[in-house]
Amino acid sequence: MNVSWSLAGALSAVFLFTLVTAFSARTLIQILWKKTIRIIESDPSPKNVWELVSLAFRIDPEKMVENNMRAAGGVLVKRPFGSPKRLPDFEGFTFLPRQMAELPLPQDAEVDTQTTIGPHARHPLKLDIPLLVSGMALGMAVSQRLKIALARGATQAGTATSTGEGPFLPEERKEAEKLIIQYSRAPWAKDPEILQQADMVEIHIGQGSSGPGPSQVPSFHLKGRAMQLMDLAPGGTAEIKSRMPGIHRKKDWRKLVNELRQLTDGVPIGMKLLPGRVEQDLEIALHAEVDFITLDGAQAGTKGTAPILQDDLGLPTVIGLCRAVDFLEKKGVKDQVSVIVSGGLKTPGDFLKALALGADAVALGSALVFAASHGQGSQKPLPWEPPTELVWYDGNLSHQLDIDKAARHTSLFFQSCTDEMKLATQALGKKSLRDVNKKDLLAMDSLSSSIADVPLI
């Protein structure tokens, strides 16, 4: 009996305490709320705390944080992954499936996925799929283990990988059945014995998220293999210049292209640039007799560049692509000069729309970094480190990336994306990805219609 009364008393006390606490809390919240509202409604603007809310509508939080970084350090701010700005992209288009007026492809029909870069070169680059690995630099950006994994995965998928602006990595060459070597504005990876190992050479003039901007990386960020391959002395700085050394006039580009073509026995030679003065730049590229053009649009990713280069430089990928294709068609050379496009393409739908608008291949960067680190980036670094620590060259966990798993997921990503594009191509009644074109598209808005000269929905 005493136990029952004790239990009842305890429960009553808890209940009473809860009521008092709830009442007190409610009363306190009400008092604070009234006081806050009174201050907001009566304080003059210069002293009113509501100005913080108003400021957030005028300047987004990311810009506020970056401005504080500038004020704190007085040095160049570097933002990872590219611009957050919303720019025109491939989502402005939709495909027109065939159903009754015209029929889709039979379900058992094969869809050809092959593409050729530089068809008029002595040794064209033939790929099983129109997707490839974009240039990601060893040391300047990603780790040796990721480079090897991407090369191996690309080989398994029947496509090519690129060295990027970094030094030539022999292990990457060993893993890659088809390797694109970038001839950049840096001093490394230009020895004849290196260039002669290329299946294609891409002259790196500029790229999305950085344009032709110069870059410097201190040696302590590159210690280890990258520093060795760059032939960089301790305390030195790896430097990529804003202009290609030795190039001053239009004819110099033609001389460089011819020299590279002879040195490599006729593999495709092309140029990579950020779309800007598209027609003027392509006029020079055609004079140089390139086999292909790579357009890396303003939505491209990066390990880290100044926000002004990401937000306020160059044209969106889809605009650069449409203007370039239109120019090449008017010049009558679209069937001779291949177009590779990159920068902000994320889905198989984006990839197929780029092909429909005239691209011969799509180069993937950020999407592949996340695909390759699938199952590892979410488990090994988190919750104490960001996933990028697993793939950056100077990442604390870069040594933990499982190369075999990363290669496998890279290949599977390519396979899955290609299968989706094949499925859509069947719905369009086409037997090859190369047959998909602008006539299969409608624009969802007037801007997209104007960009691509595609009918508005």
TrEMBL record:
- Residue stretches in coiled coil: none
Which regions span the lipid bilayer? none
Give the SUPFAM superfamilies listed for this entry. FMN-linked oxidoreductases
- Entry's Pfam families? Glu_synthase
- Show where the Glutamate synthase domain sits: 116-430
A GO BP entry is: glutamate biosynthetic process
Gene Ontology molecular function: any one:
glutamate synthase activity
Which CDD domains is this protein grouped with? Answer: GltS_FMN (cd02808)
**Highest taxon in the source lineage:** Bacteria
Return the similarity comment. Answer: Belongs to the glutamate synthase family.
Protein name from the UniProt record:
Glutamate synthase conserved region-containing protein
Which organism's genome codes for this protein?
Answer: Melghirimyces algeriensis
